[in-house]
Amino acid sequence: MNDPKVFEILERHGLSTTKSLGQNFLKSGAVLEKIATAALPAERIIEIGAGIGSLTALLCQGAKEVITIEIDRKLEPLLKEQVPFPNHQFLWQDVLKTDLAALGRGTIVGNLPYYITTEILSLLLENISCWDCAVLMVQKEVAERLLCAPGSKDYRAASVWVQGLCEGELLFEVPPHCFHPAPHVHSAVIRLRPKADRPDPKGFIAFVQAAFAARRKMFASSAAVQQLLKCDKSTLSALLEQAGLPQNSRAEAFSPREFLRLYKLAQIKNG
Ligand code: SAM
Q: Is the distance from CB of 165 to CB of 198 less than 8 angstroms?
């Protein structure tokens, strides 16, 4: 694909980018192709954020059906021109207010607006049964945080959410000069595939969040976990023993697999 002439296309429509909406549009044909290749083939694609429609157009050529959620209606005339495909539909709304289940199961693709990365990730993980694969451009630091191992200073609740519920991989990095305008940060594209044997996402997310509320405290003494599971320290000690984990463990030391084991045991205990 040739590099899209982002500035010229915007200018022709009397438009400029809106910083507060995270509008850094890809201007590298090579990067756009790599993202599309990572997501295709797919029956149905649900794209988050259209920009000037460069990625949308590529996706429309490889998928049966593409639905794009875009909040910025001033892009509509430009996008009608750039995305003239019969297998495509725009939803002019906030992705965070979108009922993903109503759209049908698909592959999620998005060069995400970075100001709401965490909120979008939470939405996707809570609705994990609505998608089979997600190809997402995020800030490079965020990608590293989500996919890092326990023991790293970057390891946090979101790392466990993602790695507990999905198989995740960092596909490639994207430098600032590939965007118009160039952001101040480096980016990376990640691909997530939901694990077949995953727990219920909302319960697991809440459990991990509670455990990380006092990440450096001993897990068995965690008031937040005790409150969530409506139990006391001795119950958490029993959970640790059953899971084969040391009594003095801290939440930040558990691997995603160990969190899954603990959560499963906690659910059995709670009936
Ligand atoms: N996909 C395009 C590309 O790669 O060039 C655009 C990516 S740009 C980083 C993010 C896009 O998400 C923008 O078009 C922006 O208007 C849109 N956006 C921002 N906030 C949104 C929201 N809450 N819901 C839906 N779209 C949003």
A: yes
C-beta 187 within 6 A of ligand 1: no
- Can you tell me the mean pLDDT for 123-128? 97
Ligand 1 contacts CB of residue 51 (under 6 A):
yes
Tell me if 96 CB under 6 Å of ligand 1. yes
pLDDT of 131 > 90? The answer is: yes
* Tokens read off for 84: 């003239």
pLDDT at 1 over 90: no
> Domain locations in the chain?
6-194, 201-269
* pLDDT beyond 80 at 52: yes
Contact 21, 73 (CB under 8 A): no
The CA distance from 140 to 170, in Å, is 9
> Contact at 8 Å (CB) between 150 and 254?
yes
Model pLDDT for residues 180-230, shown as the tens digit of each residue: 999 999 999 999 999 999 999 999 999 999 999 988 889 999 999 999 999
Which pLDDT belongs to residue 271?
63
Best residue for ligand 1 mutational test, from 18, 28, 71, 136 (most atoms within 8 Å of Cβ): 71
State whether the beta carbon of 54 lies less than 6 angstroms from ligand 1.
Answer: yes
Tell which residue, 155, 171, 174, 151, has the closest CA to residue 163: 155
Could you tell me the distance, in angstroms and rounded to a whole number, from the CA of residue 108 to the centre of ligand 1?
13
Decide if pLDDT at 270 tops 80.
Answer: no
- Third-level CATH fold of 201-269: Helicase, Ruva Protein; domain 3 (1.10.8)
Please, what is the average pLDDT of the chain? 96
Architecture of the CATH domain 6-194: 3-Layer(aba) Sandwich (3.40)
Ligand 1 proximity of 95 Cβ (cutoff 6 Å): yes
| pLDDT for position 198 | 96
